[in-house]
Known about the structure:
alpha+beta; 4-stranded antiparallel sheet; 4 strands; elongated; voltage-gated monoatomic ion channel activity
Amino acid sequence: MTAIGVQARRPLGQRQPRRSFFESFIRTLIITCVALTVVLSSVSICDGHWLLAEDRVFGLWHFCITTNLSAPMCFRDLGQAHVPGLAVGMGLVRSVGALAVVTTIFGLELLMVSQVCEDKHSRRKWVLGSILLLVSFVLSSGGLLGFVILLRNQVTLIGFTLMFWCEFTASFLFFLNAISGLHINSITHPWERPWKF
């Protein structure tokens, strides 16, 4: 009877404490904000028109010439913009930006799974998801910085389009959500002992 009693009490001792409403609300808010950020960054990269310089539009995918008399003429060959290294550089910027979105999607999945399937690994999944958001911030910021460096001679503050500012906002939200996720986890679950992976 003693062994049966111990086995019956063990699952109760291992049961995770219930989260407070405030903690659940904050975590849900972070997940929702990350999902909206993925959409914002995806739209910005798919559109790709980030800079307007006089009668030219520079984008991740096209280079366009605009005139008042006709529709814009767009070229997929970025070499026709006559900017040194633009074609190769934009390829890297596109790749880094797309990789940032993919990394965010994986991070978002880990955040959601940690909340839906609560077990002893939930905290680790949440931390890993937040770290992936930090990686997304680094990649997205690198893409933005690379774009500005490539077109440094054409860049003006009022020349950046709405799509550029969308990506800039998404990059900032990657960082904000990552830091918020790590902070809420450290508040609710202090680092009392090292984790065993």
